[in-house]
Design brief:
alpha+beta, four-stranded mixed beta sheet, 33% helix, flat
C-alpha cells in the first residue's frame, strides 16, 4: 500500500539557468526549421560557457538550398534567445558572445530507418522507454512540488522582465518540500530559492524581502506557515550567473522538465528534438494519456509507459499503473489507451499536432502542467479523450 503521510521535494530552474539557456537555443533552432518545413528533421545540442555558445547535431530539409540558408540563421536565432532571456553581462552578452555552428545534415542511415517508404510505415526515431504521469492533487493534474516550484520562478521572471523588480537577474533555482497528509499536499515545510541579483550590495535578507511577496501570492493559501523553513540565497551574493558562472548543456534538466522526481523518467531529453524522436513525442503522448485517464475519473493517479524500437512504428509495449487508485483494472485501461489513440510516431504527431514551431516555449518551467494554447502549443495537456476512454473501458 502506498504511503499517505510524507514529505516530498522537487526543484525547478529558471530560463536563465545555463542548461535552460541551452535548451532554449536548441528548441529555437527546431522551431525555425519546423516553421520552414513541418517534416523537418532536427536534433540540435547546445553548449554554453563564458562568452561562447557551441551548437551541434543534425538537421534535414527536403530542399537542400533552403537547408544552407537556414544554417546561416543560427547566429541570429541564438542571439535573440539570449537577449530575450536577459543576458547582458560582460562575459555573456547577446551582442558579443562567440557562436560556433557545427550543425550538419542528418545521417542517411538514420533517415532510412525512420522515414516511411513503400511497404514500410514511418518508424520511431530511436529505441527507448517513455513515461507519462498524472495525479489529481493539483488542478493541472501534476505533482504539487514541481508544479509550484515552476510557478515561483515563472512569477519572478514576469516581474523581472516587466521592470517591476529590475535588480533580479535571469539565473535562478527554486525548491520546495511539501508535506502530504492522507495523500494530499497540505504544507510547505521548507523553501529554497537562489536568484541572481544585479546589485552587489544586496544581502540574502534583502533578496528575501524582494521575492517573498511573489512567492506568497503564488503558493496556495495556508501552505506557508510559521514552521516553514526559508533559505533564500543561502550562500550570500549571487551576482555572476548563467553560462559565465557555470557551463550549460542541452538536456541536463530532464527531471525538472517532467515530474520533479515524483514519477519515473525514461532517460531521454526533449529539447532540440523534432517530434519524430519518440524521446519527445511519445513522452508527450504518455502524459496526454495519463492525464486523460485521471481527468476521466478512471483513477486518481496514473503512470503510463510506452516503449519503442528504432525504425519500428508500433510501440512494443504499453503499461499502466494506477497505484491502487483505479476505478477499473489497469489492464482495461491499457486496452482502452491502445484503442483510443494511434501510438505510432506518425499517429502521435497527427493526433497532437506536433509538426509546428511550438517548442521554444517549452524550454523552461516544465513541459507538463501548462495550459493548452490556441496555436497548438502544449496540445498534450488537452483533456479531450475523456469520453473515448470512458467508452473504451
Amino acid at each position: 500500500m502506498s504511503r499517505t503521510n510524507y514529505t516530498f521535494t522537487s526543484e525547478s530552474v529558471s530560463e536563465g539557468h545555463p542548461d535552460k539557456v541551452c535548451d532554449r537555443i536548441s528548441d529555437a533552432v527546431l522551431d525555425a526549421f519546423l516553421a520552414e518545413e513541418p517534416e523537418a528533421r532536427v536534433a540540435a545540442e547546445t553548449f554554453a560557457t563564458t562568452n561562447r555558445v557551441v551548437i551541434g547535431g543534425e538537421v534535414g530539409l527536403s530542399d537542400k538550398d533552403k537547408l544552407k540558408d537556414y544554417m546561416g540563421k543560427i547566429d541570429e536565432i541564438t542571439r535573440a534567445c539570449i537577449k530575450d532571456i536577459g543576458y547582458e553581462q560582460d562575459k555573456f552578452h547577446h551582442e558579443t558572445v562567440e557562436i560556433t555552428n557545427l550543425l550538419h545534415e542528418q545521417s542517411a542511415h538514420i533517415a532510412q530507418g525512420v522515414n516511411a517508404a513503400e511497404g514500410k510505415d514511418e518508424g520511431a526515431g530511436d529505441q527507448g522507454i517513455m513515461f507519462g504521469f498524472a495525479t489529481d492533487e493539483t488542478e493541472a493534474l501534476m505533482p504539487a512540488p514541481i508544479q509550484f516550484s515552476h510557478a515561483i520562478l515563472r512569477r519572478l521572471a514576469e516581474v523581472r522582465k516587466s521592470g517591476t523588480e529590475p535588480t533580479l537577474g535571469p539565473d535562478a533555482k527554486s525548491q520546495i518540500s511539501v508535506r502530504y497528509e492522507n495523500g494530499k499536499p497540505v504544507e510547505v515545510t521548507s523553501l529554497v530559492l537562489s536568484t541572481q541579483h544585479l546589485d552587489e550590495t544586496l544581502t540574502s535578507a534583502d533578496i528575501r524581502a524582494i521575492v517573498e511577496p511573489y512567492i506568497r501570492e503564488t503558493l496556495p493559501e495556508g501552505w506557508l506557515t510559521a514552521n516553514t523553513v526559508w533559505h533564500v540565497n543561502p550562500t550570500g551574493k549571487f551576482v555572476i550567473g548563467g553560462p559565465d558562472g557555470d557551463a550549460g548543456l542541452t538536456g541536463r534538466k530532464i527531471i525538472v522538465d517532467t515530474y520533479g522526481g515524483a514519477a519515473p523518467h525514461g532517460g531521454g531529453a526533449f529539447s532540440g528534438k523534432d517530434p519524430t524522436k519518440v524521446d519527445r513525442s511519445a513522452a508527450y503522448a504518455a502524459r496526454y494519456l495519463a492525464k486523460n485517464v485521471v481527468a476521466a475519473g478512471l483513477a486518481n493517479k496514473c503512470t503510463l509507459q510506452l516503449s519503442y524500437a528504432i525504425g519500428v512504428a508500433a510501440p512494443l509495449s504499453i503499461y499502466v499503473n494506477t497505484h491502487d487508485s483505479g476505478n477499473v483494472p489497469d489492464e482495461q485501461i491499457e486496452k482502452a489507451v491502445r484503442a483510443c489513440m494511434d501510438l505510432t510516431p506518425r499517429g502521435i504527431r497527427t493526433h497532437l499536432g506536433l509538426n509546428k514551431p511550438i517548442y521554444q516555449r517549452t524550454a523552461a518551467y516544465g513541459h507538463f502542467g501548462r495550459a493548452p494554447e490556441a496555436d497548438g502549443g502544449f496540445s498534450w495537456e488537452r483533456t479531450d479523450l475523456i469520453d473515448a476512454l470512458k467508452a473504451a473501458v
